[in-house]
Amino acid sequence: MTISPPTRPESAIQRLIATLEPHGTPMEVIPRKRINWEYKEIPQFYIFKQGEISVLRATDGLVIATVSGQNLFGIAESIQPLRSHILRVETECTMLRLDASLAHEIITQEGMWKDIAVILAYYTTHLFYRDSVVVQQRTYSIIRGHLIEMNRLPEDSRLRTSVLDYIQERTLLSRSSILNVMFALKNGGYIDIKRGGYLLEVINLPEKS
Fold first, then answer.
1. Do strands 191-194 and 94-99 pair parallel, antiparallel, or not at all (unpaired)?
2. What is the pLDDT of residue 2?
3. In terms of CB atoms within 10 Å, which of 42, 58, 93, 130 comes out highest?
4. What pLDDT is attached to residue 79?
5. At 28, phi and psi to the nearest 5?
6. Beta bridge mates, 193
7. What is the pLDDT of residue 1?
8. Is-contact 175 143, C-beta < 8 A?
9. What backbone phi and psi angles, to 5 degrees, belong to 186?
10. What are residue 57's DSSP bridge partners?
């Protein structure tokens, strides 16, 4: 069974961004730059406005999620800091930062903790969704899930990262395992891939290999 990703809580995200943005400091970010949860040893909130950014597992660089819509980062880390994840900028981005303590003060003054709870619930369900795709699944099911995920991306994002790189960064599956499945799916007419291994279209993926 294919599980759909959770729905982004757009209204909660936009309300918080509109409230916090006037207090933020613009950041200079370049592609592939990694961002930690602290600035000058002070915990931060990050307001992500435009571009593409990924959340990576700190221990091995595994990509947990890639975001292209406006978002907020650092909420959970400012409440229960684990420092188990970092951010990596994928394209030119528009971002701002502000001290987490100031963000908490503003959120309290404006009565916006419900919006925070809604966003944290979304993050939690997204992790459950990701687990359903990769944990205790057969190789084909993992690759199938990520092909479906890729197919939901805007075309410019799909054509910037090859299928092989996209899946390897998110699963740590071997190169040969991924290529074997891709080759079989392409030859069977289930996916359309252009030269270089870039996904053009998912046509109709079988449930099982």
1. unpaired
2. 62
3. 93
4. 93
5. -95, 115
6. 199
7. 56
8. no
9. -65, -45
10. 85
Structure tokens at 164: 């092989």
- pLDDT at position 113 is 97
Question: Which residue has 């936009």 as its token pair?
Answer: 14
Query: Along the chain (209 residues), what's the average pLDDT of each consecutive run of 10 residues?
Result: 82 97 94 93 95 94 91 94 93 95 98 97 91 83 92 90 94 92 94 93 87
Q: Tokens 């069977």 sit at which residue?
A: 188
List, as own/partner pairs, every contact residues 76-84 make where C-beta atoms lie below 8 angstroms and the sequence separation is at least 24, other chains included: 76/120, 76/123, 77/37, 77/43, 78/37, 78/43, 78/44, 78/45, 78/103, 78/104, 81/37, 81/43, 83/36, 83/37, 83/58, 84/57, 84/58, 84/59
By residue count, the chain amounts to: 209
Ranges assigned E (strand) in 102-197 = 191-194
What is the distance between the alpha carbons of residues 194 and 209, in angstroms, rounded to a whole number? 22
Tokens standing for 65? 């999620």
Q: Write the CA distances from 201 to 2, 150, 155, 163, integer angstroms.
A: 18, 9, 9, 11
Tell me which residue of 49, 51, 55 sits closest to 17, measured CA to CA: 49
3 token code pair: 């599980």
